[in-house]
Amino acid sequence: MGILWLMGAQQSTVLFLLLVAALGLTWWEARQQDFDRRLAFWWISVVGMTHVLGYLALRLWVVYRERQDR
Questions:
Q1: What is the pLDDT along the chain (70 residues), one digit of tens a residue?
Q2: What sections of the chain are H helices per DSSP?
């Protein structure tokens, strides 16, 4: 909710639904990647504060980790 508050868009239903979707996708990705519980909550908090930008950072980090494992 951090970036929504900074933008003054706390009352925007569309942005709130996008935030909920981004948080759900983050939780799903954390489970799929078998992250440690602390790491999963860290990513959820980052996405909660930064919205879609945080989710994009998570996706980039996962892609980087997968390439390093090969």
A1: 566 666 666 677 787 788 889 999 999 999 999 999 999 999 999 998 887 788 899 999 999 999 998 8
A2: 2-7, 13-32, 37-50, 52-69
